[in-house]
Amino acid sequence: MSFALTILGSSGALPAYGRFPSSQYLTIQNRHFLIDCGEGAQMQLMKYQIPVHRINHIFISHLHGDHYLGLVGLLFSMHLQKRTADLHLYSQKGLDEIILLHLKYSKSTLNYTIQFHLFEPDQPVVLFEDEALTVETIPLIHKLPCAGFLFREKQKPFKIDKQKLLPDMKLQHIVLLKTGADVYDDRQNLLYRNSDFTLPPTPSYSYAYCSDTAWNESMITQLQNVTMLYHEATFMEDERNKAIETKHSTTLDAARMAQQTHAGKLLIGHFSARYRELEPALAEARTIFANTELAIEGNTFELSV
Amino acid sequence: MSFALTILGSSGALPAYGRFPSSQYLTIQNRHFLIDCGEGAQMQLMKYQIPVHRINHIFISHLHGDHYLGLVGLLFSMHLQKRTADLHLYSQKGLDEIILLHLKYSKSTLNYTIQFHLFEPDQPVVLFEDEALTVETIPLIHKLPCAGFLFREKQKPFKIDKQKLLPDMKLQHIVLLKTGADVYDDRQNLLYRNSDFTLPPTPSYSYAYCSDTAWNESMITQLQNVTMLYHEATFMEDERNKAIETKHSTTLDAARMAQQTHAGKLLIGHFSARYRELEPALAEARTIFANTELAIEGNTFELSV
User: Fold this and answer.
1) CB distance B16–A80 less than 8 Å?
2) Is the pLDDT confidence value at A305 over 80?
3) Which of A115, A226, A248, B70 minimizes the number of CB atoms within 10 Å of its CB?
């Protein structure tokens, strides 16, 4: 699975009906990310047989407990499982101090290093970049400063159409063709037109995680054409006043955001403890955005051609 | 159920096989206690349909994460559930600072008061006393300073044998008979001998919780004749060296402690992640102490006549 998201927790601030607080596991081209880490995330990772040692990057949207209280337990468990690789933690200021205080009172020294990457959530900022993808923050509107995360694959290599390759072509030509360029072969004074030798690359996917937010006009541009959008939908539409008061969203807010960003798919989650059944929320969102799914525990959403 | 214990977590430091870290819920004569509060304790309370608002006293044995990391989440949930009653928290120093730091960064003010009762774990000390029971600490031997908790019912009232009461006896005489005293009726110059009018009281029960400890000779006297003993048994006997190194106990340590304290029943828990199956540990403990049970999630142990 080159781009797959597994939901570990779908609950709002108060866990209910067996739902866990927010946490998601995202795999992109063999990179493994944890997004938020609510209480019990490590048990959920185990339940869904996700190897914890694979995770090298953890992103925390904000410092409400339901988004990070599973982190310290996970850090201790990584230590007990003999992790030695650096762990990169992306968070707002404060979480570093909290973690260090827990370590102090348990007289613990982890046998790996936590690299803290502290960010301010008020402007989009690139937190991570490598040859395959970028991760940038999405400023959200909530009671605490809060950021979502946008994971965006870079353009992938063009696929070489092997049947069309010429006997004289060299490896260096093929490498250049993969980038999408036309290639000039000076030995033979020939121009290899890219479109004659390649097939289009696999599409590049993107995933936006919007953890806790009121309706947020300002992110519409940033999230244009996102392949998959997770948007909190704490309340159904008949609780709009409650959503406004608590700076959360309704199902219809989430659906409208998917519509206005032209998202490929919408996932809704962070459900209030008042809802035992979630099908009504799903049905409501689908009245505006048909390709909506529930981001509930154990569901995996895979993006593929 | 006037004296009942429900296990919320049975796992050692590293949760495994669906087991949760240490936490237990104890009810004695309509008082409701939480003992340790490992990660996920609030979800376990919900799973077993235990009303969280009933809990007014929480006892934390020590500051290893697997014994308290569920606490901050539970405190937030109590707040969200509109708790207003004071919550009494018994712990070593440090947990107060940790809780306050979490509250600071989430900009939260709880709508109830936490009364911190900080104790030193090196000597037995009475943490709680009312007309029905006492709770005292049990000094344990572990890598961090650590205390168990001994819950002990006071003697219960003698039962009045109603058929034997005399027509002339007054309420004040009956109240005195319930205390176990003989009563002199000066109006009639009569001595009511207690044994003529009462039946013995219901037995008084006790429960000792020994969370994390190496073999601990010094608690044998304190725990003599305890009705029910929970003793950690992180390892089986063939891992004795590991137990010594980590200051934990084996199944046989736990069984010998039950034997030497003349406990009525032994519960074992805090199982290492190396054990998928727990029946072998149970069988091993029973070779020394027959009345042993596994303290595993969802099991309730009730003491009654």
Assistant:
1) no
2) no
3) A115
Number of C-beta neighbours around residue A55 at 10 A: 23
CA–CA separation, B71 and B102 (whole Å):
11
Rounded to two decimals, the pTM is 0.94
Closest CA to A270 of A219, A214, A191, A225: A214
Interface test with B, best of A19, A20, A23, A43 (most B CBs within 10 A): A43
Q: According to the model, what pLDDT value does residue B188 have?
A: 86
Per CB-CB distance under 8 Å, the chain A contacts of B298 are none
> Would you list the domain boundaries of chain A?
3-156+202-302, 159-199
Q: Give the Cα separation of B87 and B219 in Å (integer).
A: 29
- Say how far apart CA B195 and CA B182 lie, in whole Å: 8
Question: pLDDT band for position A188 (50/70/90)?
Answer: confident
**Interface with chain B: mutation pick from A61, A77, A142, highest number of B CBs within 10 Å:** A77
Distance from CA of B146 to the nearest CA of A (A): 11
Please identify which residue in the block is written with the tokens 């344990």.
B140
pLDDT at A304: 81
Q: Name the active-site residue from A66, A161, A196, A238.
A: A66
The C-alpha angle with vertex A36 and arms to A35 and A39, in degrees rounded to 5, equals 135
**CATH code, B3-156+202-302:** 3.60.15.10
Smallest Cα distance from A76 to chain B, Å: 8
Q: How many CB atoms lie within 10 A of CB B272?
A: 20
The two structure tokens encoding residue B193: 């001998």
Our answer to whether residue B66 is catalytic in this structure is: yes
Task: Please answer yes or no on whether B18 and A43 come within 8 Å at the CB atom.
Answer: yes
**Cα distance between residue B273 and residue B13, in whole Å:** 8
